[in-house]
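Before surveying the methods themselves, it helps to consider a single example record, giving the amino acid sequence and backbone structure tokens:
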Amino acid sequence: VDCSQLEKPVDAAPLRSPVAVHTVLANRFLGKSVLEIGTRNGDGVMCFAQTAREVAAIDMSAPYCVKLMQRSASLYNQTGSMFSVLCSDYKNALFPRVDYVTWWQEPPELQNSEIFSQLQAMHVARPFPIGSQAIVLFDLKYRPDVNDWQHYRKFAVGFKRIAYNELDMCLSKQQLPRPLCLHRGYGAFIAASFDLTNLSFTSVERQNSVVQPVWRRRSV
């Protein structure tokens, strides 16, 4: 599956994770159940829903939720595939127990350490299925992600480095300042896997606090 052939992106990277990353994940999710936390306009789940058995998207932004429901309905009309939408802060959402939970952090609202702690508490209360995993994305040009990857890498059960180039798309969509596109419109992400049934590392205190980013995706 090639998501560049299945998606019609609303956004360009780095407003969302790159389409090249979506392609890797969509193939990983084949026939599985998936939950994405922080979905924005849904460019990723539009592809995931065409390979996975079941997909749910969580976003706390009402405008994004409306857009997600519209895109899910449109996808169903075109392909017979769809995804469900949970319009809520992930901390308050009733999580379905799935094969994969995935996200790309956006501090301070969406922060890796807090999501891991929430998932660990949920597993204690009601265990995730054996074999279920969290797939966490780290942008190697985004300082909070670089810091977190240095910390969490030793706990990952596997990872893949994924190169991408969406510079032309970033410039043409004119959603971001040109210098930001020139810096972040291409590069590489890490997609790292963590065992959802063994998140005991969440009790390990972070040695460094998360650096608050100067630029945040949702403020654009």
In short: The helical segments are 3-6, 19-28, 43-48, 62-79, 112-125, 143-152, 167-173, 178-184. The longest strand covers residues 186-195. The CA atoms of residues 149 and 173 lie 30 Å apart.
